[in-house]
């Protein structure tokens, strides 16, 4: 077999192999170069991001309290997981670092990095804060979330808290609450006269204007206060959270609807310097962890409230009562007076009210033909189905 013919026959293959080898080597070099660039940028990112941050978060809730107390715990867990431990958040219950009603000042002064509670606890310092928790006969959870995130509410909240060096986020929602636990029946407006009730926020002022006496007590002291007769009534949250506190052991009647808190939003507050010290990605993680914790709380209450109510009524013999329309109307009228006083004396409250009221009017009009119309229609068809022979 002549070698020439062999070479002739294989030379294209050899050239091909040479080309392939060249391509491979070039490719490897290119890949290596790209790898070096990637490694370098990763190192740069890591150098910037390896800094760890450890936040302390105080709350107005007793430690390990379900429902409301799950808000800060979930937020902490989401942040720890999403940041792979680069930002850790340690949650402290009421009284562990500061008492419940000193959460705002502790965050404001940088004693701690963050806090969880309810904005209306601070109405003595910032009158406009009531709009960011609950307004009597105001917006429900769905409406409030819409106003906050797409209706300008959050910007106003941040404006209101900026002088205190605090950045607020929505930190959960209870959904519509219960009117509360009473040891006296409420049949007429006169039954409110002289009634001592724990009822915070603007609703406390409304309750007082309607003839009652509003008392401000942190959650952890409520059971004893009702048991010992320091108060005649209290409102806390709704069936799931109220069952956990055991109020059914010290009160007879459980009234609805929660006219005073139709969809209470909780707050997650962050010290401004603690927040701005974070790199951009950790700031984003804080922002989206708060958003997730906000929605999760509403989901949990939605899922658990009915089972808790059934347990209260069927197992513990709680008497469920609806507030009479006459009483609701009197509270509404008192609310109109209190709201007017609030916006007359505080310019920021007036500014927030204008935004809130505009969104509220629109949401209410739209819900006439959407949520409300649907719920009514659902009852009409299902109830007629039940009544059918
Ligand atoms: Ca409440």
Summarize the structure.
The chain is built from 13 helices and eleven strands.
Structural features, described:
This protein has 389 residues and is α/β, with parallel strands linked by helices. It folds into two domains: 51-173 and 264-300, 3-Layer(aba) Sandwich (D-Maltodextrin-Binding Protein, domain 2), CATH 3.40.190; 180-262 and 305-346, Periplasmic binding protein-like II (D-Maltodextrin-Binding Protein, domain 2). 54% of the residues lie in helices and 13% in strands. The chain contains 13 helices and eleven strands. A six-stranded mixed beta sheet has the order 7-6-8-5-9-11. It has a five-stranded mixed beta sheet with strand order 2-1-3-10-4. α6 crosses α11 and α8 crosses α10 (280-315). The longest helix has 47 residues, at 3-49. The N and C termini lie far apart (102 Å). Residues 1-8, 12-19 and 25-37 have low confidence and may be disordered. The structure holds calcium ion. Calcium ion (CA) binds next to loops.
Ordered list of secondary-structure elements with their pairings:
Elements: H1 3-49, E1 53-59, H2 70-82, E2 87-92, H3 103-108, E3 114-117, H4 141-150, H5 153-161, E4 166-173, E5 180-182, E6 196-198, H6 201-209, E7 213-215, H7 222-227, E8 233-234, H8 239-245, E9 253-256, E10 265-271, H9 272-276, H10 280-315, E11 319-322, H11 325-345, H12 347-369, H13 371-387
Parallel strand pairs: 1-2, 1-3, 6-7, 6-8, 9-11
Antiparallel strand pairs: 3-10, 4-10, 5-8, 5-9
Helix pairs in contact: 2-10, 5-12, 6-11, 8-10, 11-12, 12-13
